[in-house]
Amino acid sequence: MVATCDYVPTSEARAREMLSLAGVKEGEVVYDLGCGTGEILIVAAEEFGARCFGIEVNSRLVAWAREEVERRGLEDRVRILHGNIFDPRFWLHLGGDPDIAVANADVVTCYLTLWVQEELRPLIERELAQGARVVSREFRLASWKPVKVKRGIYLFEKGRSF
Ligand SMILES: C[S@@+](CC[C@H](N)C(=O)[O-])C[C@H]1O[C@@H](n2cnc3c(N)ncnc32)[C@H](O)[C@@H]1O
Q: What is the pLDDT of residues 15-53, one digit of tens each?
C-alpha cells in the first residue's frame, strides 16, 4: 500500500516563511514531496530564484499545477512530476533524465502527515547530500533534531539533524 495523505494547500505567505527559514538561495534546487498544486514551488521559483521539482501522486493536482506553472511562464524553472514520492526513479537518476533525483536537492520541502514522513525517513536519510536541508510544516520527526523552528515550521539539515 502506498503511504499517502490528503491535499491541504500551503498559502503563499506560509510558503515564503518555509523557504526563508530554509535560507533558499538563487539557483538552488528545491523538491516538494507531495507538491499539490505547486504553491510552494511557485514561490520558490518566483521569489527565491530556485530551480524546482514537485512530485505529486494525484493526477488532477498535477494538471492544475502544470497549468499554473505555464500561466506564470515558469516552465523552465518548475517541473511537476506525476507519481509516488517513494518511487526510486525520482530519487536515484533512474528515470533517464539526469536532472531528476531528489538526491540532487539542496532543499526538500514537505507538508505530509507524520506517518508518511516516517515512511520517507530512511530514503531521505540515505539519499540526500550532506548539508541538504529539509523544511517541514506542522509535523516533525521525533528522531531528528531541528536546527531551527519557527511558528510550526521545522528546519532540519543532513549531518546536523540526522
Ligand atoms: C498536505 S498536501 C501539501 C501540498 C503542498 N506541498 C503544499 O504544501 O501546498 C500533501 C500532498 O501530498 C500528496 N501526496 C501524499 N502522498 C503522496 C505520495 N505517496 N506520493 C506523491 N504525492 C503524495 C497529496 O496528494 C497532497 O497533494
A: 999 999 999 999 999 999 999 999 999 999 999 999 999
Query: How far apart (Å, rounded) are the C-alpha atoms in residues 99 and 90?
Result: 10
| Dihedral in degrees, nearest 10, Cα atoms 139, 55, 8, 142 | -10
Grid coordinates representing 117 are 514522513
What domains, with CATH codes, occur in the chain?
Answer: 12-146 (3.40.50.150)
Instruction: Say what the alpha-carbon torsion angle 1, 90, 82, 117 is, to the nearest 10 degrees.
Output: 50
pLDDT at res. 59: 97
Q: How far is the CA of 20 from the centre of ligand 1 (A)?
A: 21
> Nearest residue CA, atom 20 of ligand 1?
84
**Is the pTM for the entire model greater than 0.90?**
yes
Residue whose CA is at the smallest distance from ligand 1 atom 16: 4
Residues in contact with ligand 1 (CB, 6 Å cut-off): 2-5, 7-10, 32, 34-36, 39-40, 55-58, 61, 84-86, 111-112, 116
